Amino acid sequence: MLVILLYSFLKYCDKCFYWLIFIFIQYHWKQPALLSLTHTSVLICTYLDLDFNNSKILPNISDLFSTIFTMLLYCHIFSRNCEANDLATAFNNRGQIRYFRVDFTEAVEDYTCAIRAQGEFEIPYYNRGLVHYRLGFYEEAKKDFEQTLNLNPDFEEAKVSLRQTLLDQQHKETRGY
């Protein structure tokens, strides 16, 4: 019921006021700094009367996501309630958006900020390793995947990624690149 009322109310709010309400809701309910990417995308598409499954709107939505996450990051950083895990999650999520937009340098910067905010959070190490791997920086990728496994030895995707990185690194060396 609350969601229906909130949706009805937001339909009549202008965008600026909408984002202020969005931030208020996040702080009032003491939720993590950011909603998941899926929840955020559904919320935005619903608010803008867009079809979430329509691929033509995704480039515009990703720009909007980046703006939203940046705004929430700054609000959260300057808030006295800023917790390391919330900040790390926010930077990691924004890094994911930048990764999907093929802004690899910015994605690596966000993952690095997430790691600085909370060094025991394995996901940004893994994500940064994926970017390094994709760029062919196998040594950096290897270090990130190893650190991921140091923090979480049961992280299967990191094990697979580390194995593939070592194979590709060896293949690159044998071919003389």
TrEMBL record:
Keyword Repeat on entry: yes
User: Which UniProt keywords are present, listed alphabetically?
Assistant: Repeat, TPR repeat
**Could you say which residues form the signal peptide?**
none
Checking Pfam families in the record gives:
TPR_2
Note the InterPro entries from the entry. TPR-like_helical_dom_sf, TPR_2, TPR_rpt
- The TPR repeat units are at 122-155
Q: Which Gene3D superfamilies match?
A: Tetratricopeptide repeat domain (1.25.40.10)
- This protein is called what? Tetratricopeptide repeat protein 32
Q: What is the lineage of its organism?
A: Eukaryota, Metazoa, Chordata, Craniata, Vertebrata
